[in-house]
Description:
The chain has helices at 13-18, 23-29, 51-61, 70-89, 137-154, 197-208; strands spanning 33-37, 92-102, 105-117, 123-131, 161-167, 171-178, 183-187, 191-192. The protein is built from six helices and eight strands.
Amino acid sequence: xxxxxxxxxxxxxxxxxxxxxxxxxxxxxxxxxxxxxxxxxxxxxxxxxxxxxxxxxxxxxxxxxxxxxxxxxxxxxxxxxxxxxxxxxxxxxxxxxxxxxxxxxxxxxxxxxxxxxxxxxxxxxxxxxxxxxxxxxxxxxxxxxxxxxxxxxxxxxxxxxxxxxxxxxxxxxxxxxxxxxxxxxxxxxxxxxxxxxxxxxxxxxxxxxxxxx
Length: 213
């Protein structure tokens, strides 16, 4: 049974991280369903020419970096992965992207990636990444889910799926929003950096190339 909840009239995206409600309750408030399951993403391993160098650099550097704050996790774990990703896919990356749908769906998106931008400005694929505060994936997912709901309000109607990931730097978890069924799925797989870097990157590239779902 999902409780019907009432949310404050004014909330930023980061406020959802702090709410003591379950993801399904928050999503139900916005008329979305919620499901957790294993998602089998397509992989694209073509031309990941710099991946081995990134993996070696991370393995060599990680023992000497203290990851006890958000800035360290963003700059030395998340950003290097995204830098290589946009190089592979020739996507555009917006950091701290401001988005306001209404007073309950507003704030800044940590990392907003747009791929395959055509000459007329049309974008084929979008991907959202947030860094979970306090290394809390579950609370971070609530924030990710609501940011995906906000994106669903502004993207073109023809784009059915919105993809996202929540990361604590050393661990990533994916999510998919289906605009047609108004549902959000939380992937049960967890991808570790650097151990699962090749698998993680191959999924990210496939998503931005339009090869998933």
